[in-house]
Amino acid sequence: MSRPDAAPGATAAIGAALYGLATRAARRLPRDMSLTSAATLATLDRTGPRRITDLAVVEGVTQPAMTALVRVMEESGLVERRGDASDRRVTLVCLTEAGASYVRTRHQAGVHAFERLIGELTGEEIEALVTALPALKHLAELESQDREGPKR
């Protein structure tokens, strides 16, 4: 099946399965901070320092809401604001070492949770997932490009 239209309904079924898996995985995450805060830290980890206005767009919140969120994360020691060397008028939000450590720990916990679930699959099911890995990685890349836009 090289094209989505080769099997009517296949893309909808795959989309539904992936969406269901993602939402259930999100519900299992620790509730030590909001999903928007965690997503913002992950964005900074992937893309590097960003302007507050860029972060607001990427995370789908207003600029005042992102400003308040950054202030809280700054007080918690997870991010810091720095001047942009290329434009002194600009302030960038950057991960601190504590913020980067938090992202790594949260990511690893998610990986381990999926490893435990995958361990309950049959060998044939695991092979099917291995075969699907390139497509899943490509989906993740497409989603990141769509949400985050160009790096700053």
Describe this structure in words.
The chain is 66% helix and 10% strand. It contains six helices and two strands; from the N terminus they run ααααββαα. The protein has helices at residues 10-28, 35-47, 52-59, 63-75, 97-118, 123-148, and strands at 79-84, 87-95. A two-stranded antiparallel ribbon has the order 1-2. Strand 1 (79-84) and strand 2 form a beta hairpin. Helix 2 crosses helix 5 (97-118). It starts with 9 loop residues before the first helix and ends with a helix.
Major beta-sheet overview = 2 strands, antiparallel
Instruction: State the order of secondary-structure elements, H for helix, E for strand.
Output: HHHHEEHH
Computed over alpha carbons, the radius of gyration is: 18 Å
Q: Uncertain segments of ≥5 residues (pLDDT<50)?
A: none
Overall pLDDT metric: 88
Helices and strands: which structural class? mainly alpha
Strand content: 5-15%
The rounded distance between the terminal residues' Cα atoms is: 38 Å
| Strand order across the largest sheet | 1-2
Helix proportion:
55-70%
How many extended strands? Answer: 2
Helix run count: 6
Mass-distribution shape: elongated
